[in-house]
Amino acid sequence: QVQLVESGGGLVQAGGSLRLSCAASGVIFSDHAMGWFRQAPGTQRELVATITNGGSTNYADSVKGRFTISRDNAKNTMYLQMNSLKREDTAVYYCNLDLRRYGGVNHWGQGAQVTVSL
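The structure corresponding to this sequence follows.
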């Protein structure tokens, strides 16, 4: 059974940094692309960044140059380093593993709250 567990959220002042982690189990982690999404109150969930199994990355324009997605296949863990945080980055952040192309399920973590204060 696939399980995604996020950690590392919290409260930070604008301009500060946080690092989110997503530990995966129940899947051959190194075989799959993964991603980070976020959802602020009253808005739709939006893509933040993705990383392929080979390490190629893609970012939303709103976070380019500030956020870095990475993965450690030996630890079955994906990361999101968030620097120069802004108030508009406040959201619940979700890690994602979409296995629908393999006949599976689109998996989500439980979410990690990130709150950026002035």
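The mean pLDDT is 96.
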